[in-house]
C-alpha cells in the first residue's frame, strides 16, 4: 500500500475514532434494544467520574410506562427508591389500576474516576414496539456532576450531545 493511500485511510478514520471514543465516555445502557411487554434487566454503565473526581451517587429516573422496578443492591452502596404518582397508571393484570410506583432509583457509595461500574434494575417494559425509552441519569461526584439527560431532537442522535440520556428502544414482542 502506498504511503499516500495509507495516510488518506488513517485521516478518514480519525473522525470515526473520535466519535467512538466520545460515545464510550458516556453513561449508557448495556442493551440498546429489548422486546416490548417483557421483563428486562437494565444495566447502566458508568465509565468514569467527573474530570478526576470520584462518583458518590448515581440516580436513574424511571421512564413513563416502565413498571415493576426492582433495583439490584450493590455491596458498599446504599440503595434508595423514590415512590411517586405515575404519569400513566396501568392495570396490574388482575383488574386493579396501579397509580403509584418507583419513579427514581439511586445508589450512594464511592466509585473512583479511574474505575468503571454498572448499576442494575429489573423492569417491566410497556407494550409499545418502536418506542424510545430514555433512562435519564444524574451522576453526582465529589466535585462536579454529569447530567445524562439530553434527549435528541428530531433528526439528531445521541452523538450530537455532550451528555445524552441512556436509550432503550422497544422492539416487537417475540
Q: Layout of helices and strands, plus pairs?
A:
Elements lengths: L2 H22 L3 E2 L3 E3 L3 E8 L8 E7 L5 E5 L6 E14 L5 E15 L5 E8 L7 E3 L2 E5 L3 E4 L18 E5 L3
Parallel strand pairs: 2-12
Antiparallel strand pairs: 1-3, 3-8, 4-7, 4-10, 5-8, 6-7, 9-12, 10-11
Give keywords:
174 residues, mainly beta, 5-stranded antiparallel β-sheet
The name CATH uses for the topology is Immunoglobulin-like
CATH arch. level architecture = Sandwich
Helix content: 10-25%
Structural class: mainly beta
Count of folded domains: 1
- What form results from the Cα inertia axes? globular
The number of helical segments is: 1
Mean pLDDT: 89
Describe the structure.
- This protein is mainly β and 174 residues long.
- It has one domain: Uncharacterised protein YcnI-like PF07987, DUF1775 (Immunoglobulin-like).
- 13% of the residues lie in helices and 45% in strands.
- The protein contains one helix and twelve strands; from the N terminus they run H-E-E-E-E-E-E-E-E-E-E-E-E.
- The strands form three sheets. A five-stranded antiparallel beta sheet has the order 6-7-4-10-11, with no helix packed on it. A four-stranded antiparallel beta sheet has the order 1-3-8-5, with no helix packed on it. It has a three-stranded mixed beta sheet with strand order 2-12-9, with no helix packed on it.
- A hairpin with a 3-residue loop joins strand 10 and strand 11.
- It is globular, with a radius of gyration of 19 Å.
- The N and C termini lie far apart (48 Å).
- 22% of the residues are buried.
- About 10% of the residues have low confidence.
Amino acid at each position: 500500500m502506498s504511503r499516500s493511500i495509507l495516510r488518506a485511510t488513517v485521516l478518514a478514520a480519525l473522525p470515526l475514532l473520535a466519535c467512538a471514543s466520545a460515545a464510550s465516555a458516556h453513561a449508557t445502557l448495556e442493551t440498546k434494544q429489548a422486546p416490548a411487554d417483557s421483563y428486562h434487566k437494565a444495566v447502566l454503565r458508568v465509565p468514569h467520574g467527573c474530570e478526576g473526581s470520584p462518583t458518590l451517587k448515581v440516580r436513574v429516573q424511571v421512564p413513563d410506562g416502565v413498571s415493576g422496578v426492582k433495583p439490584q443492591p450493590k455491596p458498599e452502596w446504599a440503595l434508595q427508591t423514590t415512590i411517586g404518582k405515575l404519569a400513566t397508571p396501568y392495570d396490574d393484570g388482575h383488574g386493579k389500576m396501579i397509580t403509584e410506583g418507583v419513579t427514581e432509583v439511586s445508589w450512594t457509595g464511592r466509585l473512583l474516576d479511574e474505575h468503571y461500574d454498572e448499576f442494575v434494575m429489573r423492569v417491566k417494559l410497556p407494550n409499545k414496539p418502536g418506542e424510545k425509552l430514555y433512562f435519564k441519569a444524574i451522576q453526582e461526584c465529589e466535585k462536579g456532576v454529569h447530567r445524562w439527560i439530553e434527549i435528541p431532537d428530531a433528526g439528531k442522535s445521541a452523538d450530537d450531545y455532550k451528555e445524552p440520556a441512556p436509550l432503550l428502544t422497544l422492539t416487537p414482542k417475540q
